[in-house]
Amino acid sequence: MRFFKLLSNQLLKIEFVKNAVSEKTGLGIFKEKPTPKMIFGFTCIVVSYLMCWLAISVLGIISLYLKAPLLGIIGGIIIWNISNLLFMLGFYLAGAQHSKVFLKWITRLFIEKLSS
After folding, report:
1. N or C: which end of the chain has fewer CB within 10 A?
2. Which of 8, 2, 6 is nearest to 21 (CA)?
3. Number of C-alpha atoms within 13 angstroms, CB side, residue 90?
4. Are 65 and 89 in contact (CB under 8 A)?
5. Vertex 75, ends 72 and 77: CA angle to 5°?
6. Cα–Cα distance between 100 and 79 in angstroms, integer?
7. What is the average pLDDT across 109-115?
8. pLDDT higher than threshold 70 for residue 110
9. What is residue 1's predicted lDDT score, i.e. its pLDDT?
10. Contact 111, 12 (CB under 8 A)
11. CA 89 to CA 82: how far, in whole Å?
């Protein structure tokens, strides 16, 4: 038990952990209505999935039909990278604030369990 108390005291020296515990962070942000920025972010995520799976599949079929494997290989890599960038943009727009609140909340719970 003494080890856990010592560990929680050491973790409380970290600014993020200290803020999470002092602010009593909760999950109230998840009850709020999504903003247009978040809706655009979710749309980017959905489009990235559609783009990745459908576009690469269609490109693969076209490259088989034209007997041009490099078209499928190089085009697939390009589409996959664009899709990943679109997904990251969507995640940033839709989930950045929520991720931070969730991390603070889970940190607060961990520290409270550790110190009790």
Report:
1. N
2. 8
3. 17
4. no
5. 100
6. 30
7. 85
8. yes
9. 67
10. yes
11. 11
Listed in sequence order, the residues at least 6 apart from 97 whose beta carbon sits closer than 8 Å to its beta carbon are 29
Name the phi and psi angles at 29, rounded to 5.
Answer: -65, -25
CB 106 within 8 A of CB 63: no
15-40 pLDDT, tens digit each: 888 888 888 877 887 788 888 988 89
Q: How far is CA 41 from CA 2, 30, 82, 83, in A?
A: 45, 16, 15, 13
Distance CA 42, CA 95 (A): 9
User: Domains of the chain: which residue ranges?
Assistant: 2-115
Q: Residue 60 is which amino acid?
A: G
Q: Cα-Cα-Cα-Cα dihedral of 73, 78, 79, 83, to 10°?
A: 140
Q: What is the pTM of this model?
A: 0.64
**Tokens for 71?**
């078209």
Would you state the structure tokens that stand for residue 46, as one six-digit string?
């959905």
Q: What is the pLDDT of residue 94?
A: 84
User: Collapsing DSSP states into helix, strand and coil, what is residue 68?
Assistant: coil
